[in-house]
Amino acid sequence: MNETDKSGTLFADEGSTVICGIDEAGRGPLAGPLVVVGLIMHSPVENLADSKSMSEKRREELYDKIVESSRFHIVLFDSQAIDREGLSACMRAALEEIKELMSAEDVTLLFDGNSRFGVRGINTMVKADTKIAEVSAASIVAKVTRDRLMKRYASDYPLYGFEKHKGYGTKAHMEAIDRYGYSPIHRRSFKRASKKRERGLF
């Protein structure tokens, strides 16, 4: 079991010298894909932090630096897969795939949050994306990857404003759903709580 000191430094399992940070983007939106990233850094990148705390411009700047400084694997599930399999099953499959492709004797797999979705060999840490560089980097890669996809979808389905809200349940997004119905990239299994509020089912 991994532990952290007060400074947030990860003490890897005995014999482990490499951290594979894992994080996701798109667990809660009403439309678009779930993106999960496992990432191992080969050289440090300065000023990493949780992707949600950064501006889009800053994430894009760091993304290029991270890509040059790391090895990573991206797992993507579209809205149809999420509706068909369920979000938890998709998360579990993503973690299994990353474990298969990124694990080794000297690698500690560290996932942001408090659930490993039943996958053995995955370590978890709450707010790891604010404490561990590899998880912060995975968070940024996942977020930028998903945001870029949502901008592409915005050109295919211009009535919904995906380039602005990225599929999350904003007032403008819900009003668009009320007016135009669901697009092919909406998650039908994420039920409407009311006309003024959306809630993803986890």
Structure notes:
The chain is of the alpha/beta class and 202 residues long. It has one domain: 2-Layer Sandwich (Nucleotidyltransferase, domain 5), CATH 3.30.420. Helices cover 37% and strands 18% of the residues. The chain has 6 helices and 7 strands, in the order E-E-E-E-H-E-H-H-E-E-H-H-H. The chain has helices spanning 56-69, 79-85, 87-102, 133-156, 162-165, 171-180, and strands at 3-4, 10-11, 18-25, 34-41, 70-77, 107-112, 123-125. Strands 5-4-3-6-7 form a 5-stranded mixed sheet. Helix 1 (56-69) crosses helix 4 (133-156). The longest helix has 24 residues, at 133-156. The chain is globular, with a radius of gyration of 17 Å. 40% of the residues are buried.
**Domain unit count:** 1
Task: Report how far the terminal alpha carbons are from each other.
Answer: 26 Å
CATH domain class: Alpha Beta
Strand residues, percent? 15-25%
> What is the CATH homologous superfamily assignment?
Ribonuclease H-like superfamily/Ribonuclease H
* Uncertain stretches: 1-15, 193-202
Count of helical segments? 6
Overall shape: it is globular
Write the layout of secondary structure elements.
Layout (H helix, E strand, L loop, with lengths): L2 E2 L5 E2 L6 E8 L8 E8 L14 H14 E8 L1 H7 L1 H16 L4 E6 L10 E3 L7 H24 L5 H4 L5 H10 L22
Parallel strand pairs: 3-6, 6-7
Antiparallel strand pairs: 1-2, 3-4, 4-5
